[in-house]
Write a structure and sequence with these properties.
heterodimer, A: alpha/beta, 4-stranded parallel beta sheet, B: alpha/beta, Rossmann fold, 14 helices, 8 strands, 48% helix, 12% strand
């Protein structure tokens, strides 16, 4: 990495952005909405740190090795090498929330990518082709880091990026865990791969591996994920101090910044705020009557209307399989066995396990969070999350008596979403909850 | 009309022990099954069922291979296969297996098999070998251990069959052979359902056919999952197209070529570790989207098919909702065009009949060829 870009990066990081962010930090918090409790003050800080992350990104090119990373990849290894990490999935969610999904998908489709493919992938490929996006052009990656523990799609997608940019793709192959008997072999395979990546990264990043630094990052990541788990657990309380729709938004740092001090600090602040709300009995939705478990990724472009619709019917989303994914296995990180525990933490997440495991996880979430309803988002883009949901729904209905509804939609592409149909289905679902 | 799609019913159940395994795509060590006396039937494009149950269990964005395979497996329980194998080929397939076993209470044994993805180094090979051993142990448990020497014999069948397939492909690529697209692929795809000795007899019979007068058909390379729809090959014959080489997931992408084949045969002769030989054979197969092969490798492979068969162009038959292939096709098409190789990419679905629009597009493509 060369000197001038490094100086520019440091100046932006340590001088320019802090000043700009301090000004934006004086912005007023979001307006209160009578349907909801007082807005979370931490939202201001969240906006600040995520804006800073994306604002700094262009200056990382040439100053740091820039890595584009899948959301389920063990980023701790890259952080030990000082990589600047960009999360295309998080960027996709931001584009989705800003209703830019169809526009960017169309860019990819014009280049020959099928309309039936994952919209996160198409947004990213569309961005790579056009440079369009709410944060401007993301820095060109020097390397790609992909783990197929969340889906196989990420590999196909990252292969396309690697081909386009002509850069190395580091692939961590996480075998699908079907039943308990596969765990040992899978963990051992993952551990060997992670160890093998160290010399590869030393070469690519031109930096020697320092175990001490790696352990620091692991410890920070474990603490941040643990804090995120505690944040989610506050929704076990009645009334819940925030909703899953809030959690979808506040998820961003643990996805994109875990292993960094800023991530840990952010969740300490959020947890303090939520704990105070629990103490004071502040409800996210005043008059909470029903508690909902959400399955699958958020419908980013419809977060606000959906959260209002829920609130109008006294429904609070209190848990989601999706938000739990970044807290579920964090306790497995063990500094005495860094590579092996990293393999377990990332290889054994529920998205990489069979549907029997997911059923048990959802039953456990429903019980712990005292959910009486289940909303399953059947995301057209996301096959591993969506195939099997019809029977999952039946199974959980039989075993727990959960009322449920399936919403056919997508994370970001509202071209295939019918708001009226969703409203009608949800209205019928809310009626069954009242029955 | 000869159809290369899987028109036969799944075989009958054995009286005393499992004899037939339904195997989902794409890459599996069939030899392990043969060593246990189990015939494998691969489920690529079984005919759809009008009274299928897929819609009640699978969301609309599931590909035809999964939907039709699901219907076959659920409807044809008896008589039907005795056990089911779900390799971890794609997200849809992994969930299909888990759906049937974990949520639908499938009574037959459901085996899972997880080949390495996106890697082919020593670490991947060791993991692959362990997976094959685990599959072998699972079959030992289900049907009893294989007889001594049975695995080695099965390995030999596998290599002999591959050698025959390679010879057939070589002959077809060279041209000068009056064998229709339908007959060629009927023989090639018989390997998906026949006991290896029977399949080899069929391949040998086709190979023994004299050169005859070759029609002056236009040679093209086809890529996709399978030759679909079912009557496409006959339609191509009628259009004057010879499928001179293919990059089909079910066909050409699974036949080791060149050095990989020779090396494997040598290893068998030397009597090495059979599990490792199998792992190496599967890893040495041509590049495929389902195992995460880099696009550059796939591009080079397809280009080599064009060169060896002197084909005039490449046709991508993109199966709707097949993510592994759909992600690769734009880069592959662009790469081939950059090398001045004419390319056509069309969406297809499994089914009995080729839509008129597809025929028209192929006609137009033929007319555009230099």
């Amino acid at each position: 990495m060369s000197l001038l870009p490094d100086l520019k990066f440091r100046a932006m990081k340590d001088v320019v952005l802090p000043v700009l962010m301090a000004r934006s930090g004086r912005r007023r918090p979001p307006k209160a909405d009578p349907l909801f409790g007082p807005p979370l003050k931490s939202a201001v800080e969240l906006r600040r740190i995520m804006t800073r992350h994306y604002a700094l990104a262009p200056y990382a090119a040439g100053a740091r090795p820039v890595a584009w990373v899948t959301s389920g990849a063990p980023v701790e290894l890259l952080r030990a090498f000082g990589c600047y990490t960009v999360y295309p999935e998080n960027h996709g969610a931001v584009c989705g929330a800003r209703r830019m999904g169809p526009e960017l998908c169309a860019e990819a489709e014009a280049a020959g990518y099928s309309q039936d493919l994952c919209s996160y992938a198409k947004i990213d490929l569309g961005h790579a082709l056009s440079g369009k996006g709410p944060a401007g052009r993301l820095p060109r990656p020097d390397l790609l880091f992909c783990t197929n523990n969340i889906c196989q799609t990420v590999l196909y997608w990252y292969k396309a990026l690697a081909h386009r940019y002509g850069i190395p793709l580091l692939m961590l192959d996480a075998p699908y865990i079907s039943g308990a008997r596969d765990e040992g072999a899978a963990v051992s395979y993952l551990t060997d791969q992670l160890r093998g990546m160290v010399p590869e990264l030393e070469r690519l990043c031109r930096k020697a591996f320092r175990e001490e630094r790696f352990l620091e990052v692991l410890a920070a990541s474990r603490r941040a994920s643990g804090l995120w788990g505690e944040v989610l657990a506050t929704m076990k309380r009645r009334p819940a101090p925030m909703t899953v729709f809030d959690a979808f938004v506040h998820l961003a740092p643990v996805v994109s910044l875990r292993g960094l001090p800023v991530c840990e600090r952010y969740y300490e602040g959020l947890l303090t705020e939520l704990s105070a709300r629990v103490e004071a009995g502040v409800a996210a939705v005043p008059g909470e009557r029903h508690r909902i478990l959400w399955d699958n990724i958020a419908i980013w472009f419809a977060l606000k209307p959906l959260s209002r619709l829920f609130a109008e019917h006294g429904c609070v989303g209190v848990a989601a399989t999706y938000t739990s994914a970044w807290a579920e296995t964090a306790h497995l990180l063990d500094l005495k066995d860094p590579f092996g525990s990293l393999a377990r933490t990332y290889g054994l997440i529920f998205l990489n396990r069979d549907l029997g495991y997911r059923t048990r996880l959802m039953a456990s979430l429903a019980r712990e969070y005292e959910a009486d309803g289940l909303v399953l988002h059947s995301a057209r883009s996301c096959k591993p999350y969506s195939i099997g949901q019809y029977d999952l729904r039946r199974k959980l209905g039989e075993s727990l008596g959960l009322r449920s509804v399936v919403l056919e939609a997508d994370m970001t592409d509202f071209r295939i979403y019918s708001e009226e149909q969703a409203k009608t289905r949800l209205a019928a679902f809310f009626e069954t909850l009242e029955a | 009309m000869i159809s290369a799609s899987q028109g036969t019913r799944l075989g009958p159940a054995g009286p005393a022990r499992p004899t037939v395994a339904a195997v989902c795509p794409a890459r599996t060590p069939a030899e392990i099954f043969w060593a246990h006396g189990i015939r494998t039937i691969e489920l690529w494009d079984p005919p759809g069922l009008e009274a299928g149950q897929a819609a009640a269990h699978l969301p609309p964005m599931t590909c035809g291979v999964i939907r039709q395979g699901f219907d076959r497996l659920v409807v044809e329980r008896s008589p039907g296969p005795d056990l089911l194998l779900f390799p971890h080929t794609c997200d849809s397939l992994q969930n299909l297996g888990s759906l049937m076993r974990d949520l639908m209470g499938e009574p037959r044994p459901c085996l899972f098999f997880c080949p390495p993805t996106g890697r082919s180094d020593g670490t991947a090979e060791a993991f692959f070998e362990a997976q094959i051993r685990a599959l072998d142990a699972e079959l030992d448990r289900l049907v009893g251990p294989a007889r001594p020497g049975a695995l080695e014999r099965a390995l030999n069948w596998g290599w002999r069959r591959a050698r025959l397939l390679r010879a057939l492909y070589d002959r077809r690529a060279a041209g000068g052979w009056e064998v229709s697209n339908g007959r060629f692929y009927e023989a090639v795809r018989s390997c998906e359902r026949l006991w290896p000795e029977a399949a080899m007899a069929r391949l040998e019979a086709l190979l023994a056919e004299p050169a005859g007068e070759a029609p002056g058909h236009t040679p093209l390379v086809f890529s996709g999952v399978v030759p679909a729809p079912a009557d496409l090959l006959d339609r191509l014959d009628a259009l004057g197209v010879r499928v001179a080489e293919d990059d089909f997931m079910a066909c050409g992408r699974r036949i080791p070529r060149g050095e990989a084949q020779d090396r494997g045969e040598k290893q068998i002769e030397e009597g090495g570790n059979p599990y490792r030989i199998l792992a190496r054979r599967l890893l040495a197969a041509p590049p495929c989207s389902t195992v995460g092969s880099p696009i550059g490798e796939r591009l080079a492979f397809i280009e080599s098919l064009v060169a060896r068969s002197k084909s005039k162009g490449v046709v991508f038959l993109s199966l709707k909702f097949c993510e592994p292939d759909l992600f690769d096709v734009p880069s592959l098409a662009a790469g081939l065009k950059a090398r001045c190789i004419p390319v056509m990419s069309v969406d297809v679905e499994l089914g009995p009949a080729t839509p008129a629009g597809l025929v028209t597009r192929i006609e137009a493509f033929l007319e555009s060829l230099p």
